[in-house]
């Protein structure tokens, strides 16, 4: 073995260990054991109702498993404070959810100490200009609003981004801009878990792919 080479498996970003999620009688996630790579874009791909969102929501405790456990970089999520966890593991939703007020106001909801200079830098990471700061957030186009929501999530200082069908309400060019933004985030060291039912989008974006079928991860 060459010097410096090791046969150790790098620690997973998330480790799902026999995770089951039930909603009443319905089993949404069925004894899933899987590791999510610590880097790049991991796409959770599967048809509607297969359990993608539920699996994603387990990663920041919006959903709590009925049994099994989930580790974030080796630490059990069940032992973590949910608010602290959600600052580390940010989430962006299907529809943009800008709050009333300016874009700057929206970013300061996530970080009340954020300066205009830091806010301008943050907008740069989602390919928006600083002139956007004083725009009314609820009057932005869908694509702009979704990137502001992404920036607002990043303003919490999160290490990981969970993205739940975040381009599905956007037109093709806005979706492409959001995809480019996410690619850049992942390439700059922030892992992204991306839920989609769109096979073509998955091919474009995925560094790693988990196919979800009827609550299980397909081989
Ligand atoms: P996907 O994201 O792949 O469309 P979901 O994770 O949203 O799938 O849903 C998986 C299954 O769990 C579906 O049958 C859905 O109806 C059910 N489900 C999801 N969330 C809830 C909930 N809060 N209450 C009851 N059933 C739910």
Key terms:
219 residues; alpha/beta; Rossmann fold; six-stranded mixed sheet; four-stranded antiparallel sheet; 10 strands; disordered N terminus; binds adenosine-5'-diphosphate
SSE topology:
Layout: E1 14-23, E2 26-36, E3 41-45, H1 52-58, E4 67-72, E5 75-76, H2 82-88, E6 89-92, H3 103-110, H4 116-125, H5 142-154, E7 160-164, H6 172-187, E8 192-196, H7 199-205, E9 208-213, E10 216-217
Parallel strand pairs: 3-8, 3-9, 6-7, 7-8
Antiparallel strand pairs: 1-2, 1-4, 4-5, 9-10
Give me a quick take on this structure.
This protein is of the alpha/beta class and 219 residues long.
Notes on the structure:
By secondary structure, the protein is α/β, with parallel strands linked by helices. The protein has a domain at about 10-95 and about 160-215: Rossmann fold (3-Layer(aba) Sandwich). The protein contains 7 helices and 10 strands. The protein has helices spanning about 50-60, 80-90, 105-110, 115-125, 140-155, 170-185, 200-205; strands spanning about 15-25, 25-35, 40-45, 65-70, 75, 90, 160-165, 190-195, 210-215, 215. A 6-stranded mixed sheet has the order 6-7-8-3-9-10, with helices on both faces. A 4-stranded antiparallel sheet has the order 2-1-4-5, covered by helices on one side. Strand 7 (about 160-165), helix 6 (about 170-185) and strand 8 form a beta-alpha-beta unit. The protein is globular. The model is unreliable at about 1-5 (pLDDT under 50). The structure holds adenosine-5'-diphosphate. Adenosine-5'-diphosphate binds near residues 26, 46 and 51.
């Amino acid at each position: 073995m060459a010097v410096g080479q090791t046969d150790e498996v790098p620690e997973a970003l998330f480790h799902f260990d026999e995770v089951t999620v039930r909603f009443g009688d319905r089993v949404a996630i069925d004894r899933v054991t899987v590791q999510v790579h610590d880097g790049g874009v991991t796409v959770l791909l599967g048809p509607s109702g297969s359990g993608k969102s539920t699996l994603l929501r387990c990663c920041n405790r919006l959903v709590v498993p009925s049994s099994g456990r989930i580790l974030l970089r080796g630490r059990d999520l069940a032992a973590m404070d949910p608010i602290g966890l959600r600052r580390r593991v940010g989430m962006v939703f299907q529809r943009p959810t800008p709050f009333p007020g300016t874009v700057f106001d929206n970013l300061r909801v996530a970080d009340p100490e954020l300066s205009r200079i830091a806010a301008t830098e943050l907008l740069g990471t989602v390919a928006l200009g600083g002139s956007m700061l004083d725009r009314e957030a609820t009057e932005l186009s869908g694509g702009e609003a979704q990137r502001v929501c992404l920036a607002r999530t990043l303003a919490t200082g999160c290490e990981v981004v969970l993205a739940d069908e975040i381009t599905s309400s956007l037109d093709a060019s806005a979706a492409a801009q959001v995809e480019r933004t996410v690619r850049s985030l992942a390439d700059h060291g922030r892992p992204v878990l991306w839920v989609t039912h769109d096979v073509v989008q998955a091919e474009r974006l995925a560094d790693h792919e988990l196919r979800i079928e009827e609550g299980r991860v397909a081989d």
